[in-house]
Amino acid sequence: MTFVILACALPQFKLWWPFFVVIFYILCPIPTMIARRHTDSAGGTNNSCMETAIFITMGIIVSSFALPIVLARASVILWPACYLTLAGNVIVYLTIIGFFTIFDMEDSDYAMW
């Protein structure tokens, strides 16, 4: 989040358009969480539901990387702001993947947390 805020708040940029990627950060885990809840409560394995959720999640992730690039190509934001936003995207999504990986392990000692 620091890179995204820097992409918006540094004096040479002065535009808050890159901050719209935060909406994608919020929306990203929702389809997967809904699909996991649905497959857990149904009792069986519903692969089509999970695959649809992963497809929607990947669309959200691609959109969050595409938004700053499109804004930079349209000269709405500067390229350094785009690079800072992309770096922030990588860090945030690695954090989300790490969270789901660690807390999804049921056979590990990490599940005791």
Let me know the average pLDDT. 85
The run of helices and strands is: HHHHH
* Low-pLDDT ranges: none
Helix content: over 70%
Describe the sheet with the most strands.
Answer: none
Structural class: mainly alpha
Described by the principal axes of the CA atoms, the overall outline is: elongated
Q: How many strand elements? A: 0
Rounded radius of gyration (Å) = 17 Å
Distance between the termini: 25 Å
Description of the structure:
It contains 5 helices and no strands. With 113 residues, it is mainly alpha-helical. The protein has a domain at 17-26 and 51-112. Helix 1 packs antiparallel against helix 5 (79-104), helix 2 packs antiparallel against helix 4 (47-73) and helix 3 packs antiparallel against helix 4 (47-73). The two termini are 25 Å apart.
Q: Topology, pairings included?
A:
Layout: H1 2-9, H2 21-27, H3 30-42, H4 47-73, H5 79-104
Helix pairs in contact: 1-5, 2-4, 3-4, 4-5
In short:
The protein has 113 residues and is an all-alpha fold.
